[in-house]
Write a structure and sequence with these properties.
Elements lengths: L1 H42 L9 H6 L9 H13 L6 H4 L15 H8 L3 H10 L3 H11 L4 H15 L2 H12 L6 H13 L3 H14 L4 H13 L3 H14 L4 H13 L3 H14 L5 H12 L3 H14 L4 H13 L3 H14 L4 H13 L3 H14 L4 H16 L4
Helix pairs in contact: 6-7, 7-9, 8-9, 8-10, 10-11, 11-12, 12-13, 13-14, 14-15, 14-16, 15-16, 16-17, 17-18, 18-19, 18-20, 19-20, 20-21, 21-22
Length: 403
């Protein structure tokens, strides 16, 4: 009898515990829904473009199943019509400090601040309360704080808020750039702003602080190569190859850097090493073609270009690359066939029209060339070479007395 009574008491307690847990959970979800809605209303007043927070909150961030809240969030989402991939912005729903005090009770405000101090600080920065944000972060005492702030500043600089991003970089400096990752994110920030020297300095600092991590040296080498400083890029890319001796992507970039630096024997060596690892890619074979062309060996260059195009018969860019080599040696008919074949498969290829313009020029058909270059610029208005060729062709037409 006593045994049955004990079991009944235990089962009753378990039942009451479950009921209480479910009640508290529902209450917490409903409270979060209200918090989200208040914050969304506040964020909707900020001038922060490229935001898909509206749809994300409406589709499962704590508001679904709560009637009016769902309806309002969905309406805001439809009205905003702004979509993007700003992951940090999705976390702003936890940033309590963006909500004015008068909209929430003191207890609710305190609860929200406890959710995520970091993103609360981001919200403060979005509201130009940068000193308060820095004070909040200082209280966190996190070793990776500078990294997180710099990462966010880089995303903000890219998307919508360059001035806020600048303040974030200043805030991060107060926590020290000790880690390689912090310098890495700082490099991204300066690169986006077009501050090449500062970006290079940051990337190289990252690489020096973590010599065993290839991605930092790769970032330095890639950026230097993109800036046309191939000789400097080689040093960092060689460091990557030492750490990843069988990485064809890095080997190919190193070969390109050697070629652009005029070190053709080394370029050939690395192109061949890349082909040995990945024999079906056309890029390193085209690389050999470019090296032979630089050496003045036209037929060898054409041989490699044909071999490269054969490796990628369905790649229109590869076929057009072969066409560009054929134009240089005067094989215009075959080059023209390749261009039209590529356009038959993909009609919006500015490179194909540009090459057709070169072919028309080589044949003295200036009006055709003008038409082709105009089509290039319709597809790619910023293509400088096409603008220059078009100006030259029009000058010829004008001298010939043609309109």
């Amino acid at each position: 009898m006593q045994s049955h009574l004990s079991k009944a008491i235990v089962l009753t307690c378990l039942f009451l515990f479950v009921v209480l847990s479910v009640t508290l959970l529902n209450s917490a979800v409903a409270a979060q829904a209200r918090y989200n809605l208040v914050l969304v209303r506040q964020l909707s007043t900020l001038n922060v473009p490229d935001s898909n927070i509206w749809f994300s909150l409406a589709q499962g961030s704590g508001c679904c199943g709560h009637g009016d809240e769902d309806d309002e969030l969905a309406r805001i989402a439809r009205d905003r019509r702004r979509f993007g991939t700003v992951s940090w912005l999705l976390a702003l729903r936890a940033g309590c400090a963006a909500i004015p005090d008068e909209q929430l009770s003191p207890n609710t405000y305190s609860e929200l601040r406890l959710v995520d101090l970091f993103h609360a600080g981001i919200c403060l920065s979005l509201l130009d309360r940068h000193v308060e944000a820095t004070q909040m972060w200082r209280a966190m005492r996190q070793p990776d704080l500078a990294e997180r702030i710099l990462y966010t500043s880089q995303r903000l600089a890219e998307r919508c808020c360059p001035e806020v991003a600048r303040h974030l970089v200043e805030s991060a400096s107060q926590f020290g750039y000790e880690s390689a990752e912090a310098y890495f994110q700082l490099g991204h920030y300066h690169r986006y702003r077009g501050e090449a020297d500062l970006a290079i300095r940051a990337y190289t600092q990252a690489a020096l602080r973590a010599a065993h991590e290839p991605r930092y040296s790769y970032a330095a080498g890639m950026y230097l190569y993109q800036l046309g400083r191939s000789g400097d890029a080689i040093y960092w890319l060689e460091r990557v190859v030492q750490l990843q001796p069988r990485n064809p992507e890095v080997m190919l970039l190193l070969a390109h850097a050697y070629r652009e630096a005029g070190m053709l024997d080394k370029a050939t060596e690395w192109y061949r090493a890349t082909i040995a690892l990945d024999s079906i890619r056309s890029e390193p074979v085209f690389g050999l073609a470019s090296v032979e062309w630089k050496r003045g060996k036209w037929q060898e260059a054409i041989h490699y270009a044909r071999a490269a195009a054969a490796l990628s018969p369905d790649d229109q860019n590869a076929q057009l690359e072969l066409a560009s080599y054929l134009i240089r040696v005067g094989e215009l008919d075959e080059a023209e066939r390749l261009c039209w074949s590529a356009l038959a498969k993909q009609s919006n290829l500015p490179t194909a029209y540009f090459l057709l313009g070169l072919i028309a020029e080589a044949r003295g058909r200036w009006a055709e060339a003008e038409s082709f270059y105009e089509q290039v610029l319709r597809l790619d208005p910023h293509r400088t070479t096409a603008k220059e060729r078009l100006m030259g062709v029009r000058e010829i037409l004008q001298n010939q007395g043609q309109p």
